[in-house]
Write a structure and sequence with these properties.
single chain, alpha+beta, six-stranded antiparallel beta sheet, five-stranded mixed beta sheet, 14 helices, 19 strands, 18% strand, rod-shaped, transmembrane helix, His_kinase_dom, HATPase_dom
């Protein structure tokens, strides 16, 4: 957001992005003369009369310098209407050393010991300078003299406003990048190791870009000229940090690349950046005596390395974009804009033999960093959604684990109790049957009741044994439609008693493997629960279909339904929402379905009904 505001301010101030080309000025100097010189130091006076001058103008982009010359004079005539409030702005003048003379008087001097030749000269003009000759002396190692901007004469306060506004965009953008980078570095202290390398590399990339934008602006070297050497060193160091940091970020996002090319590139850049950094220190200790060699390695060779890096990363970005990842597409679009602009400007810089001023790259960097911010926002949102999803899954797994542990304990207990209780019940039932033959009519009524209760207890024990160990016996192919015809015949009368009916829609060809008796037992329990939940004009719909090797069986009713609290506990041992229910029927159903490698899932809404979905492996897959 801060970067967007900064861009809005930069583009919103009239004339800021375009260098305030529309600022008013009373005169634009378009014609001048050039005199070549071999002076290596700032002269004390203007050149004498009688020298041979060459004609120059703003229409000529470059004025080639003779091989034996090291400096040049530029001469022009000041207008006659100069007042006390007038000033002169010399925009984008290239020279290591610069001096300005008005007549015989030196009114400006700059002798830089650091490698930054771009000058913006803003000077007030006194009334006594009206109509005087203006001489500009400059010394440069370039092969030509270039005046990229305009030479303006007009009201001093308007020229000052123009100069500040033309450079304010760099200051705003650079400050925005620095602010974002520092915030990311602070946040990185609270991240785990998984994201630390990516965040740190991105923060260093943004920090380096901010320093590059900040220290590339001529505003600093004009206003704080005494600190120019520090600014140039900051520029060089930030460039040496930028390349390996950006390669590391790219590698962390997309991997090592084809045959580890990205990883090898980053390793080389770390080594080469360290080499250039040590060379920078050595050159400073040697009082700049090795500057030519340092310039070769840190500018010319490093520029070639940057071009190769951009070409490799552009190719990699195009490859990763084809994979269809949305974050990758956003990243590659932003990076492509930055890399194409940067590559184009680097080529222009080398083709112009160093006379081209890089300025478009910072807007490419803005596009790229905005794309990274968008990706970061998407990444945080995606992580938040994943955390919520993982939390739900963890809760589900914990519930399933608790249920499995309970089932295991109850299964062992049920098997033990059932075996111990069944034998005494059978003996008791046998004796009661013997007594039936000798009992009187009045006594038989009580004996019949006792036998019924013993049979009910035996059924419960059978359910216990089925739950504890659902042995299927012979495993056969079951035609689902045939099985449900039998089930419908058993349960249809019960449904009619509750005022409802059962409909079955099952294709003939669908089949599963299992035990017919257990299969019927499981679905009879489910359908009986649906019947007992029916109200007036109740309907139970049974339908079945096959999908991806699984058979899906839906048992849907329009009964009273269940709340979320009841749904969450279905299948728990001894849980039942019926007044006289034991919960064993549904427990046995879950056990049988699980033993058939299937699953069962209930969805229900209070007052609407319930949908039980059972999935089983298809028999012919």
């Amino acid at each position: 957001m801060f970067l967007i505001i900064a861009i809005g301010i930069t583009l919103g101030i009239p004339g800021l992005a375009s260098g305030a080309s529309g600022a008013p000025a009373s005169a634009v100097m378009k014609e001048w003369r050039i005199l070549w010189s071999d002076a290596g130091e700032v002269p004390d006076r203007a050149p004498p009369e009688g020298e041979v001058w060459a004609e120059g103008s703003a229409r000529i982009a470059e004025h080639p310098k003779p091989q034996s010359k090291t400096s040049a004079w530029i001469h022009m005539k000041l207008p006659d209407d100069a007042s006390s409030s007038q000033g002169i702005l010399i925009d984008k003048l290239h020279g290591q050393q610069v001096a300005v003379f008005a007549g015989e008087r030196k009114i400006y001097e700059s002798a830089r010991t650091y490698n930054y030749e771009l000058n913006h000269v803003l000077l007030p003009l006194h009334e006594d300078l009206s109509g005087q000759d203006l001489y500009i002396w400059l010394e440069t190692a370039r092969d030509h003299i270039t005046v990229d901007g305009k030479i303006l004469i007009g009201p001093y306060h308007e020229l000052l406003n123009r100069f500040v506004r033309s450079n304010l965009g760099d200051i705003i953008l650079g400050s925005a990048f620095l602010f974002i980078a520092f915030v990311m570095l602070i946040c990185a202290a609270f991240l785990n190791n998984k994201y630390l390398a990516a965040v740190l590399s991105l923060a260093l990339t943004i920090l380096s870009v901010g320093i590059l934008v900040f220290t590339y602006s001529p505003f600093l070297y004009t206003v704080f000229e005494q600190y120019g050497s520090i600014f140039t060193h900051m520029y060089d160091i930030s460039l040496l940090v930028l390349l390996p940091s950006f390669s590391l970020f790219f590698e962390k996002i997309f991997g090592h690349g084809w045959k580890g090319m990205l990883h090898k590139l980053r390793q080389f850049q770390v080594f080469y950046s360290l080499f250039c950094f040590l060379f920078l220190i050595a050159n400073q200790l040697a009082e700049n005596r090795w500057f030519g060699l340092y310039y070769f390695f840190s500018v010319q060779v490093l520029g070639v390395v940057m071009i190769l890096q951009f070409m490799l990363l552009i190719g990699s970005s195009m490859y990763f974009s084809l994979k269809g990842n949305k974050d990758a597409v956003i990243f590659n679009a932003g990076f492509a804009a930055f890399a194409v602009v940067g590559l184009g400007e680097l080529l222009q810089f080398f083709l112009s033999r160093g006379s081209y001023n890089l300025f478009l790259w910072k807007w490419g960097a803005v596009v790229f960093i905005v794309s990274l911010i968008v990706i970061l926002g998407r990444h945080f949102a995606k992580n938040h959604e994943q955390i919520l999803e993982y939390s739900k899954e963890l809760e589900m797994f914990n519930n399933e684990l608790q249920r499995s542990e309970k089932m295991e304990i109850i299964s062992e207990l049920a098997a033990s109790v059932a075996h111990e209780v069944r034998n005494p019940l059978q003996v008791t039932r046998g004796f009661l049957q013997l007594l039936m033959g000798k009992a009187k009519a009045a006594e038989r009524e009580y004996l019949d009741l006792a036998l019924v209760e013993l049979d009910r207890a035996s059924g419960i024990i059978t359910d216990f044994l089925t739950f504890a160990k659902p042995e299927f016996g012979k495993d056969t192919v079951l035609q689902i439609s045939d099985e449900f015809k039998h089930i419908e015949g058993i349960l249809a009368p019960l449904a009619h008693l509750h005022g409802g009916k059962i409909t079955v829609d099952i294709p003939e060809e669908l089949a599963v493997r299992g035990n017919s008796s257990k299969f019927k037992q499981a679905f009879i329990n489910i359908i009986k629960n649906s019947i007992e939940a029916l109200q007036e004009e109740g309907l139970i719909q049974i339908r079945c279909y096959q999908k991806q090797g699984r058979v899906y069986i839906h048992v849907v009713d329009n009964g009273e339904g269940m709340g979320e609290d009841v749904l969450a506990r279905l299948g728990e041992p001894y849980f039942s929402n019926k007044t006289k229910g034991t919960g064993l029927g549904l427990m046995v159903t879950f056990r049988i379905i699980e033993a058939m490698d299937g699953s069962i899932h209930f969805t229900s809404k209070k007052g609407v009904g319930t949908d039980a979905v059972i999935t089983l492996p298809a028999a012919y897959e």
